[in-house]
Amino acid sequence: MNNYYIFYTNNLFSEFEIINSGESFTYKFINNKNLNFTKKFEENDILFICKKKDIYITQMILKIINIGNEIILKKLCDYSNPLDISKYIACKIENDIIQQIEYQNFIEIYSSLKRINDISRNIDLSYLLKYDNNTFANKCFDFLEAHNLIDKHVILLLTNSDFCNKQFSNFGKYSILKEIDTNQNIENQLKDSGNSRYYKNTRNYLKKTYAISNNWFYNPEKKKDNRTPFINWLTKLFSAIKYRNFSLNTDLKYDYNRIIFGAPGTGKSYTLNKDKEDLIKKNENYERVTFHPDYSYANFVGTYKPVNNDNDEISYKYVPGPFLRILVKALESNMSDTPEPFLLIIEEINRANPAAVFGDIFQLLDRNNGVSEYPIHTSEDMKKYISEELKIPADQCAELRIPDNMFIWATMNSADQGVFPMDTAFKRRWNFEYCGINKKEEELNKQTTLDIIINNDPEPIHWNSIRKAINCELTEIKVNEDKQLGPFFLNVNDLMDRYSDNKSKLQEKFNDLFKDKIIMYLFEDAAKQKKDFIFSGIENPRIYSEICKEYDEKGLKIFGEDFTNKVKEFEAKAKSSGDDL
């Protein structure tokens, strides 16, 4: 978990030394003074770097990426419009240099910084039109470089002649950028049919060399103008920077694309729900959907459906699915002064065919700082819906990206029967978290003291000990962990809430639940091929009703004569280790 600090300095370069000024700035602490306070630092901790003038203002945010002999920090972003953060400092920090702050304070400071800098991003590039073609072209690319706007997507567009001709006009068969092979004669590559088409001064982007087109026009009266469309495109690209470069919000605490997997009952949904309550403060800011074999792209994203109009007549309307609904809400919030996080939870993601359900949305899962690295082109129906919901022109909805305030979390159990496999490309776009078979058992022990009397044994037995003993039996017959029983496989909390005042009723309901869930699961799934081994205490383990009948008579001895001894061993281990059973 990250820690967040305000770090005070009179002079940045008296505290930090730049060790890399390439694509991403990195620094190290200069050990010219006592830095004992740095011993509290951990990797991924975040530092607001602030200076004191009349007030404390923050200018930069750094992230600790390595702790060893030297502490290395990466610059996440800096600000041309600093923010007064005096109210977040409980006392003067000059003497202490550093002060830890709460996570909510971090979010509030960052959101304010983001809002201030977003407001300043309304720019006018029309002054570039006064320059000659060569100067115009180079100043445009100077602008792109200065604001870190050149990425794979921009290169892909500007090297595409069809895009350049359609978007900016008057480029014919030529693109704005042309990749140059430096091992070949460069001058020849700048020409076509003996005519020079690109300027000689090349530029290096993403480890490749490019030349800039010299095919520029600015004669609005004769409608020969490709400079103005290019400037408009640059302005729009720049205004979208807030979706790309300022993404320090809650993504620092939670992954954007997240799948929790593990055996049944390990608390996958419980974990996501707990994190959801921490991340999301309004119920309308999240949706939950459960995948099933018939679930489709139309269900998930949206499609036309028949609806009744005001005259009680059937008409067809584009109806968004949960993905598009939460996406539009996130986009709308991200355009406001106070953006909020939004969450889509997918239960049992692999019970449908994930590749088919996501369709082209799959491409949006490649995210850089929370924002889709590559956009998709929206259909006319989707474009119209987004345009109407966000109240923006339709041409601004031609491309779609997931913003940095939208999270997609899912649960998965690969051991379920009838699940769909995930291909490697789909998996690569998610962060997987494994819920171990006993990972959350301590939470079970804290929540309940449910003890069960089995077969009139005077000593009650805790459900968790029974579960562990069954898992031990499954392990012995080589059943994989992902088919074993997690602590929450039975909802014992519900039993306690409903029947805690009636011990006999509690015992009866537990036995019913044990037969309906545990025995059925072992019989139909986990031990389906090894019933003789798991139900070794009965004569006919091939008939479910017989197993249940024997359980009513023998209790846990349906698993063999030694099974109750295993249960008691787990009870003893838990008590000796201090667990509250």
Automatic annotation (TrEMBL):
Q: Where is the signal peptide?
A: none
SUPFAM superfamilies in UniProt: P-loop containing nucleoside triphosphate hydrolases
Which Pfam families does the entry link to? AAA_5
Q: Which residues form the ATPase dynein-related AAA domain?
A: 259-429
UniProt superkingdom = Bacteria
Protein name, entry field: AAA family ATPase
